[in-house]
Structures
1.
Amino acid sequence: MDAVRRQFPYLRAKPQPVYLDSAAMAQVPDAVLDAVNAWEQSSRSNVHRGMHERAEASTIAYESARSTVQTFINATHADEIIFTKSCTEAINLVARSWGEQNLHTGDAVVLSILEHHSNIVPWQQLQERKGIDILWVDMDDEGGLRYDQLETHLQSGRVKLVAITALSNVLGTAPDLPKIISLAHKTGALVSVDAAQAIAHMPIDVQELDCDFLAFSGHKLYAPTGVGVLYGKRELLQSMPPFLGGGMMIRNVTTEGFSPADLPAKFEAGTPPIAQAVGLAAAIDWLKQYSWKDIQTHEQEILQLTIDRLKSIPALHILGAAGNFQFSIFNFQFLHGCLSFTLSSVHPHDLTEILGRKGIALRAGHHCCMPLHKRLGIPASNRLSVGIYTTKEEIDACVKAILEAQKKLHP
Amino acid sequence: MRKGDSGSAEKITPLTMDVYAENVLDHYRHPRNKSQEPKTKVQDSAIIHTEENLSCGDTVTVHLAIENDRITSISWDGTGCAISQAAMSMLSEESSGKSIREMEVLMPQNVYDLLGVPIGPRRTKCALLGLHTVKNAMRKHAGKEMQRWTETMGSS
Ligand SMILES: Cc1ncc(COP(=O)(O)O)c(C=O)c1O
């Protein structure tokens, strides 16, 4: 564990930080900073638009980053990987491009109550413009989905798309994607996966999943900010109109109009996040030195310990499945990456502020999931999230501080 | 407070200075003038107004009775963090008996002074939720349009 932590500049700080907010943003290892720095020093130049040596080096680095992402999520073709600025932009791309073209009055999009605002609002924007309906899939008491509701919605025959998270950024529960995708495809609906959280905590194979779109951000995967990825099946991406207009995304422009470029350039208008894409590829290469089995075993041990410790705190309530959970590794019901809790009569902002002053980083609020919090009947919660570098000592320090905060506010 | 949060060097907001000072915690644990019902006898004329901080779900409802351009009775109810609730508790004591004119010139700085602890940018809205609610209750009384958060916060 020390060997992992030592590779992160922030985690080398003294006194040792207790960083339990990786679900909002993961820390970045030396290897990624070095790769970005190396590109800045020796290749910095725009891509696909110069004959000189640097332009070529930069283009090679950028396209090689695309291949790295392709391999990481096992996409069939490199041009199925579109670089965006974030997961949010990637989802908006699907809504604006595919949605505008394929959704019409009376059509429906299915969302789950677990969704992040990034996977809600783009569809609500379409709802207003295109006269479509949004059909919601509720959760059960443990944070699993009501698959019966999904089936009912799909049977209406109106559903063109199911937009679903691969991992809740509040409850840490993972919907059964293979099941959702197979149900949706049976009725001809497409599936768009929000993998913002899942990408750092579980292996993702887009061919095996057979999802139609998948989006994530680099910064939750130990990579720089400012880069995201949209995966889409090639035939779909090819049939979709461009999203943003500008340089790079055209084949030809005349005073009369333009014709769009081929994939992936069609969806990458303007100068792309080159350094960030290089950093993302470095993060993936760095992460791949560890096996998913080791990463998951470690993270799940930490989460198990967290649950055990938190349960010993009076008046603390863990949201969703962890409330009464059985340890079973690699089980879909298990938690990945994070869990959230409330503490009776201690407001999340007070708790995280008191913890923050002790150098312990947790996140408080609705975590961009207001509908989920409304469903749970609470305005806000505290989220504790883990990463490959999280230690048992961090959990112990956090639990101790929670008890102290509780005592301070209510002696 | 973190580096870069604010350009104002005169605000003393070191991490070491505790926001949860005893007087804040005292008002939080034992809120003054808190009740679910307006406590005025002239209940019919009570002005009731609620504001919410959506980002954390804190709410404050104030009940005011105003006679001869003066607040003759104030009570409030709410849920939320220690800062928002303590600030409202203090503000209710401060506002009692004040004239409409005196209420109009009440500024964020007055609330910060009542709290007596450093309020960083992260907690501004918590500290000012009560002020925002009272200001808008006064506006409701005057039949004026509600003021926005920027107006409540910007008048410092
Ligand atoms: C589940 C989920 N979806 C989408 C996002 C949006 O990611 P970004 O803000 O990087 O676009 C997040 C980030 O918090 C998330 O947790």
2.
Amino acid sequence: MFRKLMTASTPTTPNPSADEDRVLVAKARRGDEDAFRALVEKHLARVVGVARAYTRRRSDAEDIAQETWWKVWRKLDTFREGASFTAWLYRVTINCASDWVELRSNRRHTDIEEFERLPVADDTVSPLTGMAKAEFAKAVRDAIAELPEPFRSSIVLREIEGLSYEEISEITDVPIGTVESRIFRARSRLKAVLEARGLRP
Amino acid sequence: MNCDNALHLLGLEHDGRLPASDRRRLDDHVASCTACAAEKRWLARLGDVAGSLVDRETPPDLAARIAAGATGPGTRERTPLRAVPLLRTAAAFLLVLALGGVVGYGLGDDGRPVEAAPSVVQRDEAAFRTLLKDRLDLASPDIERLVEIRRRHDALLADVERRRAEARSELERAEIRELWNALPEAARGRLAAIDPHFVPAPTERR
Ligand SMILES: [Zn+2]
């Protein structure tokens, strides 16, 4: 559903959702808290989607989401009128999420989630075809979370958020060709990580 | 077409960006190359799970909490979402006030009691009112009750501290007197002449 929602919103086509954002943003900039809440309600799933790709814990993702919206509220006046709110929001979210992860990367916790990330012992590795979809999805998700920037954000926006290269280019502020090469390289690394863990894609 | 070209084009294909003119050449290569065929399967598998990579489920009230947290007063210094449920905030305020009176009190370098610098909270009754109103959604009379409780609480703590300081100085004086009395009589006389500060003050009470 999300994928469709986003791919439908190319800059050239009329976009009621973006128009609605513009109205809400304009109101929120004037201090209208109801308009701001409407923005949060409308776009929270995007923010949470990105945040959860950066961290495994649901509660951490909620903290990142809170941080993101806190920044959005305070930075609304720096948002360029007429620009895509969604693109801007993604940018803020990615910055918050990667800062958040960066800040905590030195703190290694040994907990259940940590154990779950350890490579599976050889005898339990499913053969090429036998790996369950859920298991594969989890392995991919973990591998994505461990990618370095800017590969991580590129692949998150593409695979998880289902955004177009054009949208990713706007969000990450690099040319389409760079987006393409980042995504390509991100997928290669992803594959290499999975293979290194004995999870042959 | 070599494998490098094919891998690049497979990525484009996966993202729906393969130029029509390359379709035929790519398919031909993949049909005859096991490595690129495997790559194509991997991408298909990735696409298959893409939708289930994250779940966006959140508690139903998260959006409202986040919005309120971002726009609310006193949120210049952000508090973690989970650590401070709103209702606990007022209790925390009162606790801070209570502790502020006791813990913030101590002896200065010269041994004399010093007042701890009043916190922003203590100084700013208006902020306290705003907080009660916005965070706890209280009606005016209740807010005034709490402000009055806070005032009296402050006064009470100040009173307790004054008495505590008196008791402490009384104890100090008693101990000093004991030390002083242990000195030889002649020495006490000479010292009193040199510096009268050595001589313990007589008991003030009674
Ligand atoms: Zn090949």
